[in-house]
Amino acid sequence: MTAPPVNFAGTSDNTSDSGEDPGRQRKRGAELEQAIKDATIAELACGGYGNVTIESVAARAQTGKASIYRRWPTKQELVMDSLGCLLAGPLLSIDPPRLEDTVTTRDALLMLLRQVVEVMTGPGGEAMRSIMSESLRDPDFSTTFECDYFDPRKQVLVDLLERGVARGEVRPDAVTPLLPEIVAGTLTHRIVMRRQSISDEDLVELLDRFVMPAISPR
């Protein structure tokens, strides 16, 4: 939903939209932004992308609409930023240059898979389900979703593979964007699309029977 023009001149986080109770706004700054993002994810999980409105997010976050429009001019920007932040920690915190030398490529990949599953089996999975449904209906939305959400996260896995090449644990020709798509597709299909759980044993099997044989030096 495209937000209507909002005049923010002279307003602050201490004032809410016309007709709203200023006393509701108790949070400020980073705390308020996180509350808005959490509310957005909860709205996505409960009703899907089509039912998310700035009004519903504001009500759940206990803030005014102006505070949201000031930071995110459109619903799409709000949703993408909220979803990106939800998965930024676990997926983008695995920094290959900072991994200890004792952490093998297999260790790092298993760590990554476990963190992905942890997020996808929570509210993030429900939110992703609604976002993926919307991306099938809206080509422009799909492009934004791919560029802003999937591409940075696929790069994390590529970086791990490149680290493995330098360690002699991964073949150079195995460093391809296709592998992250295969792994992400497997987990997404199992957890998001089919709503089935995936155990740690499943992850180990996926890694040891399919991923590692495909990337290890022959």
UniProtKB/TrEMBL annotation:
Keywords: DNA-binding, Transcription, Transcription regulation. It comes from the Bacteria. Residues 30-90 form the HTH tetR-type domain. It holds the Pfam family TetR_C_11. InterPro entries: Homeodomain-like_sf (IPR009057), HTH-type_TetR-like_transc_reg (IPR050109), HTH_TetR (IPR001647), Tet_transcr_reg_TetR-rel_C_sf (IPR036271), TetR_C (IPR011075). Residues 53-72 bind DNA. Residues 1-29 are annotated as: Disordered. PANTHER family: HTH-TYPE TRANSCRIPTIONAL REGULATOR RUTR, TETR-FAMILY TRANSCRIPTIONAL REGULATOR. This is TetR/AcrR family transcriptional regulator. It comes from Jatrophihabitans lederbergiae. The lineage of its organism: Bacteria, Bacillati, Actinomycetota, Actinomycetes, Jatrophihabitantales.
